[in-house]
User: Fold this.
Amino acid sequence: MCTRPASSVLTSLAVILALGAAAACGGNGDGDDDDQPQPGDTIVVSPATATLTVINGAAVEQPYTAVLRHTDGTEVDVTADATFAVDLTSVGYFSGGSTLTASGAGRARVTATYEGLAGTATVEVFREDVRVVEPAPAGAADLFDAATDDPGRVATIVYPSHNTIVPPNLGDFDVHWTDASGSDLFEISVKTYYADVRVYVATAAAAGAWLALLESEWTTVARSEVGATLTVTVRGLTQASPTTSSRADIQVHTAREEIQGGIYYWAAASAEGGPTGIFRHDMSRAGEEAEPFYTNVEAGRCVACHVLSRDGTKMALTYDGGNQSATVVDVATRTPAWAADQYYWNFATFTPDGGALLTSFNGGLTLRDPATAAAITTVPTSGYATHPDFSPDGTRLVYVRPSGPGSDWAFTGGALVTTTFDGTTFGAETPLLSSAENNYYPSFSPDGEWVLFNRSTEDAYDDGSAELWVMRADGTVGPIKLDAANIGAGLTNSWARWAPFEGSYGPDEAIEPIYWLTFSTKRNFGVRLVGANRPQVWMTPFFPTRAAAGQDATAPAFRLPFQDLESSNHIAQWTERVVPVE
Assistant:
């Protein structure tokens, strides 16, 4: 009988024990640990779908797990070592762990990443917010739940208009309505598929009533979907007999992206006796009021017409009205480049890089050094010229050629003319639009393809007949009247200007590019500003593909909410960013 040496027996025993230990620790026999991903492995996130409901902003939590699933079907829990994230931060967040804290609304994707391998899950968060404004009764929601809509009781939403389109970061949202059916309690609701905000107010509305959503309420509904459709509903009932209710519904839509850039406008008068001059607002700071930037307080005199460099670092302005002193102000320090009463102009436009400033004065166009105001060259025009604007690439200039001399701000028979610019020399005039009508305040779109302008039957100054028009910068399309933004006569729709960035609108399968444009108008603001003949700055989207087809390319306009309702605001100018004041 053969015997094996003791050392061989011990060696074999050690190998057996080692193999057993490896099996007990999850080894796969090829030298790799089970918790290391191999080709073909996947990360499984659980739950694969989750539905959560948030009530009045009270956060809810949803724990997740991540499992490494090998191709042979074996699984290893890697939750503790995975990194979790959610792609829509307005829905919720992970704070370093595997539990989602949700307080917003919408559909989002949860991703777990482990050793370079990722898996996903879907979460849908529904949010319901209810706010009761005193003296409305605490049980107002129950009264409306029990009431039946009566077609004989009529409520009318007077602001915003049906199918208005707004940026999701508008920050403030008004609903104005009338109801002459005797209602004294109202439910105002703004809903998307994922969000439902309802506010209850006790008021009379025969002569009109209004409500402003809180910024948090607007954010909830506006960010609950990309390119959301909001159903705005007003219902009214009589508390003494709450069985039937009135009802009105409209839809409002949001663009797919937030609007960016900064807007500077002239507050020419204030009914409350506040400062007048240039105010500004950073569009990324939703919910904040406009701030005074360079007013009669800082300047010690009237500050009026102005224009900004595209990067927001320089502002050219005029003092004290037409044909008066002008200067260039450093935005960061609010310091004029030179003392007042040395140089004069009425309207101006910077080259895209801010390195030169083109000014108009008594019908002449002069290119200047913005640091010294020294003249560099003049534009060779065939007659009186005013209202200049450079294209975004700086290679073209558009301006107005009135039919006869007048003033830079008041004339008739304005024709639109373009010319080329190579950085040092201007080319010959090219007619864009004849002077059969009075066309003025032209402005190039951010892509340089379109020219927005005003048209009136009057003298181009504070004209009640002023309307918004647009045409291709090469003259091949238009002019097109922007009917949806104009909406009616006598509104003084003036000083039309473009916001600096392109956005988009529509569902995933039908996305359209849009630009935003602003203008001053004396139209009524719902029931809050009626018959006041007071200009405010309003906004509307512009659809270039619709305009290219010769269609009306706007939607109903809306008032920008950061303005003081008591001030007269116009000449809104845009920058790509708002430069902080040092």
Notes: The chain has a mean pLDDT of 92. Residues 111 and 337 are 53 Å apart (CA to CA). The first strand starts at residue 42 and ends at 46.
